[in-house]
Amino acid sequence: MDPVRNPYAPGAGQRPPELAGRDRQLQQFEVTLERVAAGRPERSMVLYGLRGVGKTVLLNALRSAAVQRAWGTGKIEARPDAGIRLHIAQATHAAVREVAHRHRDPDRVDGVAGVLKSFALATRQADRQGRGWVPGAHLSDVVATKGRADSGDLELDLVELFTDIADLARDLGVGIALFIDEMQDIDVAELAALCGACHEIGQQGAPLIVVGAGLPHLPAALAASKSYAERLFAYVEVDRLPHEMAERAWTVPAAGEGVTFEPEALAELYRVTEGYPYFVQAYGKVTWDAALADPIGLSDVQAAAPEAEAELGRGFFGVRYERATPAERDYMVAMADLAVQTGDGPVATAEIARHLGRKPQSLSPARDGLIKKGLVYSAERGQIAFTVPHFARFLRGRDLSTT
């Protein structure tokens, strides 16, 4: 097939040509937007799941839905050991700019901008890395509002900031939506402050929602930060695609190029990808390039499989393995060996220690380092699992003798 016409798009957060299997989540969010804009009570949303299942893609699609309804939106990506105050200042600035130009009262807009500026300037003192953000030209002539959103108490400042920007959006019959990717990387104290602010805003009925996305342990992290977090958000698990939706992800883009698949080819593609969206796109792309003619058949998938596996090994899996220290790699290899017994599911940390002939306490630095790097997560107390699907299989099949 002509590689220039290849319709598949494997990439980090890159929207596939056919966003299959996510209609229910998109429809649910449309209802949320309608209800919040109408002043009806509705919870913020949290997406959670393994890496490669399309959480970021879905998060971006939800943001697009909010933009289409003329909401003010902003997005941040949380990072380990980095405070969120600076990033929230930037995201809310973007959201305010999206609604401010439609407002008829410039003094009202300047008042909200002054609160935003006071919150932003407070990052100089409050950001844990000592960084500060000086608002650009759009706020350069605005006077910061002293005594509003600048106390240094993140939860109090967020409540005041969210209240004011939500009121500005309410004047226009819309709302504000903040999107947070990698939400599990937010510091526990800051996560608690964010939950507290969302709780207060919800009680006010203010038209502002937060949509977070993160790894499978994100719901547990939120519950640990605030006891009421389990009732504060609508939790949506983002998982692999069922067979019919994976087929749709392959056949609809191909049909747009006048190409079809034989049923046996689709069955084999699903067998090797198990419906994980990133793998669906990766195998689809390589299979297209390997196919000699229409329709794409089983032999094309089989011919393409080694190249697809090699590309995943170099990129999706390999770069993550290389980020780990030697001790962390030993820990992951032990996990992979033991995961054979659990169907590549969670493994008991005590079993890993026995497998390595070590005391469990001595392995804590390696485990904690892997959690911090987002390579594993604590499925439940005493259990550990990979955040990346098929990673255990990759480690068992990899020649590790030279690494």
Could you explain the architecture of this structure?
The chain is 54% helix and 10% strand. It is an alpha/beta fold. It has three domains: 23-237, P-loop containing nucleotide triphosphate hydrolases (Rossmann fold); 244-320; 325-397, Arc Repressor Mutant, subunit A, CATH 1.10.10. The strands form two sheets. The protein has a five-stranded parallel sheet with strand order 2-3-4-1-5, sandwiched between helices. Helix 8 (188-204) links the parallel strand 3 (176-181) and strand 4. The longest helix is centred in the last third of the chain and has 26 residues, at 298-323. The model is unreliable at 126-130 (pLDDT under 50).
Summarize it.
54% of the residues lie in helices and 10% in strands. It is of the alpha/beta class. A hairpin with a 2-residue loop joins strand 7 (376-380) and strand 8 (383-386).
Topology:
Layout: H1 23-37, E1 44-48, H2 55-68, E2 72-77, H3 85-100, H4 106-121, H5 123-126, H6 137-140, H7 154-170, E3 176-181, H8 188-204, E4 208-214, H9 218-225, H10 229-232, E5 233-237, H11 243-256, H12 263-273, H13 277-290, H14 298-323, H15 326-339, E6 347-348, H16 349-356, H17 364-372, E7 376-380, E8 383-386, H18 391-397
Parallel strand pairs: 1-4, 1-5, 2-3, 3-4
Antiparallel strand pairs: 6-8, 7-8
Helix pairs in contact: 1-2, 3-4, 3-7, 4-7, 7-8, 8-9, 12-14, 13-14, 15-16, 15-18
